[in-house]
């Protein structure tokens, strides 16, 4: 992977926070995940901080045990479209499952967001790991892991095909000659595959960035192959810098085998900071937040990547328990990583749960300490930047105010936007329309 | 149907216009249907004119013969979400097909738009009449007319059920007690029907208007029954005032049989004006616009409700032709109305095509003449208001500037908004959550 000269940053719109008890913080906006004003404010702060994109996670199955943020929240395409008008430069990346959607509808909604925003859209492709999801979509069974990735690859292939339905000069819109469309530059996809048959054309043209940017977070074997083959921005939750470097090398090996150039993709680990003007204050804030975490909520949160497994049936202060195979089946890579870490470090169930609910201590401290940690990660050469998640209310504001200027001072971060599209921010080339390319080169589209 | 005291108005976001040659007008914004600034401006003018809602039509199948507006345009949920932030009071009504979507996704996107906009969303339920649509969604055959309506009824039933997943007080969000959700007020739908099985709950709560408003345009036998049973705002394209009155009586008879109260729904015929400070100027503008219409484009436009039938194979100046049964199969009510009108009035094919491409002359004239015609229609008691479509560039502006003040002066139109939700604008009651109602009354939900 090539290392860009400067750090790229995404910001995750995550309601009052990803932790099950984050909403209990005295300063937390309790209805943040359905509060448009809260998100508008965050979007503007992130844009003032020259972030490259906003990111909205998603899932389409909940129970009463789900995270407060997941119980009640905006749908990604609608909230991002709403925020398109509140911002002018920042990218808009939404998560949508390939397992329970129609490629024609997905292609269209992202293309529409892309045009509305002047070329700022990205699609984070997920396959939905929670097995209960099937019941919301009339399916007897949730597709198996391997099937979901095969389906995702075909789904994405169709969506990207539909995004090229019109060549960039398909619409002369010549009033005098009365020519609106050049029909030779409108293309049917005529896809017939294992899961989908889609004729096309899509009823919307390309944006200034050509196509929305593809995001993905592949951790399993199939997931890594999917990411290395198809994704442009890769989310990674490997935990430590060492694990992230190993993940990056693994992805580079796979991507090279798929014939991809190193400058065509980049890695984004998550980043949660607790930063304050002094280290002492940061540590105090961190401890305060920790004190709000209830073990029973942390256990629920721990259960999520284990397909909602109920950990409360096990003793808290004994070793991380043996689990049935079903608990590892749907999100094998993340669940096995957590269980492996707990066993390797002889953590109790309580310690494992509390650790999963907290930011890494490496990013807790003074502005210079946090900037140093970020620089250390970035200069490893493994990553393109970070996807920032607030671990405390207004940490985004503190980060923009205290840390960004240091990174700018060090030449590690842009002082202003130099592009207008997400693809431009991330230094990815605009993909030429496949039919234009075919005509130009004489090859088949 | 009860007649509200004042006229309600919707405005259709229709790019450069519904006519195939509308984009050729010298003042037309040629890329209007993918121009966010154009739509933002129109939305603001409509809101300045105290319109009750913006409306976005839709279809999910095009060919190179489709209307310029349909060839390339924003998707309804994304453009309406973007416009939510550019406006503060006006309703936001989007069209989405029930034939090629998942109820869980549809429920969620409209509920999200509804929360983002503070209770201003509406769903126009359509079943997609173009038989080619099936090919974009991997279906061997487009479902038959009757099947589509049965499916639509079940789809809507599921969506409305999901919209009640949370009772209005389901989220105590009590930081001190640590209670975010009251799990007794989160409900699974557990729907199992002919077409859909959906467990629920939906992952989003209700808006201030309870549920999005249901719009529909039923013209056929099944369509009228669907509209009379389920729709709150009914679009009608009966053509003349007399036919509109007859349609309204038919709907009232059916709605009463379904046990509905007359104040729970209202009719909205389309309205296209050509208004100018003087009658002479309006007539001149009308003629200018007429002169831009090319007969070959008008024939394509005529073909739309005939499932894309190619009328160019018939002589222009002979009687409206006999058509194969397939041309009438998918949108029987509209296609038969047009053919019947042509035969009854002994119109040639050319006359039929040009007539379909033009506004009604009744609404061409001076501000007082147009206001008189609107008043005449409204005082028939058959309608709640109109769904306004621009027939010329900036006709919305002219209408707001010249006609609205006359209607206000006559007490027929509000001087300002009195509500903040779409349901409030349309005088429809907020539907009580079904589970709250059941608990209150002791009945089953």
Automatic annotation (TrEMBL), chains A, B:
Keywords: Flavoprotein, FMN, Monooxygenase, Oxidoreductase. FMN binds at residues 58, 95, 145, 149, 220. GO terms for molecular function: monooxygenase activity; oxidoreductase activity, acting on paired donors, with incorporation or reduction of molecular oxygen. Residues 29-382 form the Luciferase-like domain. InterPro entries: Diverse_substr_monoxygenases (IPR051260), Luciferase-like_dom (IPR011251), Luciferase-like_sf (IPR036661), NTA_MOA (IPR016215). Belongs to the NtaA/SnaA/DszA monooxygenase family. This is NtaA/SnaA/SoxA family monooxygenase. It comes from Thauera linaloolentis (strain DSM 12138 / JCM 21573 / CCUG 41526 / CIP 105981 / IAM 15112 / NBRC 102519 / 47Lol). The lineage of its organism: Bacteria, Pseudomonadati, Pseudomonadota, Betaproteobacteria, Rhodocyclales.
